[in-house]
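Propose amino acids for all 302 sites.
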């Protein structure tokens, strides 16, 4: 089922509640760097962020496959080990994809490698391996509908420790440079953020460019990240609230069904901090900023 045909109400999903700490002080909320944070408010009705991922899978007809993958990962790795991302391609509602991220963190299980996670993914096949001498911070695995159904292999990306660099891994090709990231505080690091954006080769100088790339409403966040890529650059905002999430989804014209779902359950999602990202490149307009957003993403964890 394509998302374009799912703008109307979908069958109601059984909602997964927010996990509770089994011992006092144990963190249960993690951002897209898999770092813990303390929610500003909690209620007994709180929902887990992964419900949005499940809604997206349901909208594309792969809920059973997606939930089976979650179950395998949770059973093998434990809770709070995986960051998820939903990627919405602008103007291509059928082209949604997902990415699961695995960080090296103190609460990881002992056998925490791409090779081990690839075994957990089976029957979904993961292409690529991390060279044994690489010092890596995290790796991720990208999925579309066909890959989630096991009809095609997935690709993996590895993020090299302390470098801000990531590489795409394939079985039949050498590692390919994918991204170069820069994280900064949105206030004290604003000069570095602006310098990176002004140096982007994917947009031309225009008075509106920075206003489009850095909406003031999203700048109330923990960090802003600028990523330089091959065919586009991107901006990410970490730990935004539910109102900023809704603003972002409206701004980037996400499917109305998902936006309605979030509005319906906003009170149960207020305890969460969200992470957002948007890819941009130059279009062929001869007037204005010439800026277009090609992809946007929202992130949570389970």
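Proposal:
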């Amino acid at each position: 089922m394509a998302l374009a045909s799912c703008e109307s109400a979908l069958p109601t999903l059984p909602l997964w509640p927010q996990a509770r700490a089994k011992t006092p002080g144990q963190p249960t909320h993690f951002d897209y760097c898999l770092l813990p944070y303390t929610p500003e408010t909690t209620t007994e009705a709180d929902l887990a962020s992964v419900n949005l991922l499940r809604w997206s899978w349901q909208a594309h007809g792969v809920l059973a496959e997606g939930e089976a993958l979650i179950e395998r990962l949770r059973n093998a790795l434990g809770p709070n080990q995986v960051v998820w991302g939903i990627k919405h391609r602008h103007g291509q509602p059928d082209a949604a994809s997902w990415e699961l991220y695995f960080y090296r963190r103190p609460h990881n299980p002992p056998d925490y490698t791409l090779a081990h996670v690839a075994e957990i993914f089976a029957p979904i096949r993961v292409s690529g391996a991390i060279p044994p001498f690489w010092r890596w911070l995290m790796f991720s695995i990208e999925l579309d509908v066909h890959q989630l159904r096991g009809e095609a292999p997935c690709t993996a990306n590895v993020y090299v420790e302390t470098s801000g660099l990531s590489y795409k891994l394939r079985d039949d090709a050498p590692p390919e440079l994918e991204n170069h990231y820069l994280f900064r505080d949105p206030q004290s690091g604003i000069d570095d953020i602006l310098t990176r954006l002004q140096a982007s080769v994917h947009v031309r100088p225009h008075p509106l460019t920075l206003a489009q790339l850095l909406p003031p409403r999203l700048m109330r966040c923990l960090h802003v990240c600028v990523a330089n890529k091959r065919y586009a650059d991107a901006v990410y905002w970490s730990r935004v609230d539910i109102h900023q999430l809704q603003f972002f989804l409206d701004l980037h014209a996400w499917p109305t069904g998902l936006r309605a779902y979030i509005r319906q359950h906003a009170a149960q999602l207020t305890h969460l901090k969200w992470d957002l990202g948007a890819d941009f490149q130059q279009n062929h307009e001869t007037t204005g900023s010439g800026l277009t957003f090609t992809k946007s993403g929202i992130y949570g964890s389970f």
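The first strand starts at residue 83 and ends at 89. The chain is about 25% helix and 30% strand.
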